[in-house]
Design brief:
Layout: H1 7-26, H2 36-48, H3 54-72, H4 82-102, H5 107-122, E1 148-152, E2 155-160, E3 172-177, H6 186-198, H7 218-231
Antiparallel strand pairs: 1-2, 2-3
Protein name: Core-binding (CB) domain-containing protein
Domain Core-binding (CB): 1-72
GO molecular function: DNA binding
């Protein structure tokens, strides 16, 4: 099986395996360990301590999964765990938000993209729910400024007008909370909406607008998504707005 791998692939997989063994040895953990807690700790260690990029960490996981397959005959179940996916997504979100806060394009576009990133993440939105393909605003299905309201001093409510899983087209309230983190969605989203109203926007106006003030379409967001990833040191080749 090892001989069937390309030399570079085998070298990368061996490096991944050695990194995991080194991590386990440092923290005096059983070798090998493939449980979800250990894998999450390894990902965090690789990012926080070793300063390794997400694409490299994903390569590590592929290598570790390969050696698990050799020993168990099947893929490691920990790599398909919800928490692993969320940990990687939080890392990517953090890098992108830091890039936007540091200055990506312009103050307005940076704030719009920051709000889209945070709202999409914390509301578990599909890209079709905030970045439509249609260039024309349809207030019946596309989000407007009126869809966001203050529920309390630490809670916002986003009214999702339409969802792919909503067969009866019944709007759904989604709660966004103030967090003790720079990823807190409450402050930037509230400030963005207030700035729009301060600029005499109507509650029925688009929630997210492009550079020209028109609908922030899927193609517009996809373009900036890739550019923000690049500026954050993350290759956009491994990601899409769908993921």
């Amino acid at each position: 099986i090892l001989s069937s791998l390309a030399p570079r692939t085998l070298s990368a997989y061996l490096s991944s395996w050695n990194q995991l063994k080194s991590f386990l040895a440092i923290y005096i953990l059983p070798i090998p360990s493939f449980d979800i807690s250990t894998i999450c700790l390894f990902i965090t260690y690789s990012h926080v301590v070793l300063k390794i990029r997400s694409s490299t960490i994903q390569s590590y996981l592929s290598g570790i999964n390969f050696f698990f397959k050799l020993s168990a005959g099947t893929s490691c179940p920990s790599f398909f765990n919800f928490y692993i996916n969320m940990l990687i997504k939080i890392y990517i979100l953090s890098r992108c938000i830091l890039t936007l806060c540091s200055g990506y394009l312009s103050n307005l576009i940076d704030r719009i993209l920051e709000d889209i990133f945070l709202k999409a993440f914390f509301c578990f939105l599909r890209y079709s729910e905030f970045a439509p393909t249609s260039p024309t605003h349809n207030p019946l299905i596309h989000p407007s400024l009126s869809d966001l309201s203050i529920h309390s001093y630490d809670t916002l409510i986003f009214n999702l007008r339409r969802s792919k899983t909503d067969q009866f087209a019944i709007s759904c309230p989604i709660y966004l909370f103030r967090l003790n983190s720079f990823l807190s969605p409450y402050e930037p989203i509230q400030n963005y909406v207030q700035s729009r109203f301060a600029a005499n926007a109507s509650p029925h106006n688009l929630l997210f607008i492009s550079d020209s003030g028109k609908l922030a379409s899927r193609s517009w967001f996809s373009l900036h998504f890739c550019q923000v990833l690049l500026k954050s040191g993350i290759s956009p080749d491994h990601y899409s707005i769908h993921s």
